[in-house]
Amino acid sequence: MEEEKRLDENAIRENLRKKRVELGYTQADVADSLDISVTAYQKIESGRTRILNRNYSRCAETLGVSLSELINGFEPVKDAVAAMEEAKIAYGLKMKVQESGYLNEIQSRDREIERLKGIIKDKEDTISTQKLLIDQLMGRLKV
To answer: How many CA atoms does the CB half-sphere of 48 hold within 13 Å?
Structure first.
């Protein structure tokens, strides 16, 4: 149980450090905001001292994140909403590509149908011409 608690504290320290670096804050900036010495803050980040409970909220406030984000390393709801938006956009793009493919396939098949209709028309014309010739030949043979 103590090991689990220690792992959580390590994760929080790492989240604190990552967010501080991401925002471009120095250890002195955060220490000032927490009203502690730079050395005390360095000990917090390095794991040589524990973060006092009252300082969790102050750390989150200093970094402009929620307590949940400081503890978890991410904001679950924001991340879920962002992931849903990304999925929606990706799905929309995939559907457009698929729709475009379907439209191209339909156009291709329409062109093939027109080509085949032309061939059928040519064959019908040929058959019609041959019937006329046969009729003419049959008429000559009867005479």
So the answer is: 6
Q: Which residues contact 85 (CB under 8 A, 6 or more apart)?
A: none
Whole-structure pTM value: 0.47
What backbone phi and psi angles, to 5 degrees, belong to 19? Answer: -65, -40
Q: Indicate the number of domains in the chain.
A: 1
pLDDT tens for 24-56 read 999 999 999 888 899 998 998 898 988 777 778
For residue 30, the enclosing domain spans 2-74
Q: Of 42, 72, 41, 73, nearest to 58 (Cα)?
A: 41
Answer for the pair 10, 4: CB distance below 8 angstroms, yes or no: no
